[in-house]
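Researcher: Good morning. I'm working through a list of sequences from a screen, and I'd like to move beyond sequence-only analysis. For each chain I'm collecting a predicted structure so we can compare shapes side by side. This is the next one on the list. No need for commentary yet; just the structure.
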Amino acid sequence: MSELIVIPGDDPVQIAGSPHLDRLQPYGKVVLFRDRPGDDEEKVRRAAGATVLINSRSAVKWPAALLNRLTRLRFITVAGIGTDAIDLDAARRQGIVVSNIPGRTASIVAEHALALLLAAARRLPTQTAELRAGRWTNLDMTYLGGKTLGVVGVGSIGARMAQLGRAIGMQVIAWTFRPSAERSTQLGVEFVELDELLRRSDVVSLHVKLTPQSRGLIGRRELAMMKPGSILVNTARGAIVDTDSLVEWLHSGRLGGAALDVYDVEPLPPNHPIRHCDRVVLTPHNADQTPEGMDILNGGAVDNVIAFLEGQPQNVVT
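Model: Good morning. Structure tokens for this chain:
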């Protein structure tokens, strides 16, 4: 039986036009929507009858109430690592297999995190704005060599970030939900408690996936522990940080800066308070969106679909 494979909202464009989609032709009909669905009813209309979804954008959410209405759906793959756009418990109850693409773009994302950090430490956005305004302004900057980088989460991306931090002369400490002596030795980093990491680090870089345990992990209490003048980097998920508290600490001048690729609301609304903070570097959730990264993710999503349809699902999350 020919499958209906739906890409429910590819905005900003990721997989549209990818040659990898041609590999799905023998397996069924591919329907791709370039714009983002306007509401939940539109999501259901687009996915109605689909046996497979390729969720190329995490902004397209699939809570239980919507998955319950997709009676033919058997498989979802995300075109990335995070699966927080999908209610995994609901998928499990309905027998929907969910896959992701773990680790393959880790170096690309970590490089972006380092770029954000360097831009924040050297205040590059502000310096550019000053020169464009015709002002030759001398700003305070931060030298990172010899400073302490605290890596929160040591999966593939966090591990690579630790390497990059050491490469520019930083001392690296780390925290993870499941520390082990073996992993500490493998990475060559000291595992510490989260509170200690926050107190000791000049830079805190977040690399945990979004789960009920990590949501709000960095809140008012945790931000208050960070060193005066320290920098927060987040390329994980926006909801890991309490935005209101982050904005408050940035306005107070206690934090030296924030470098963010992810937000509590995406796309970032025009009136979002983080837009009005000084000492921030912002990118639109595109840390892995280089040509190489896009090809890896698009190819991985198609590989996941083919593996499932051939009865050998891979990269299964649930």
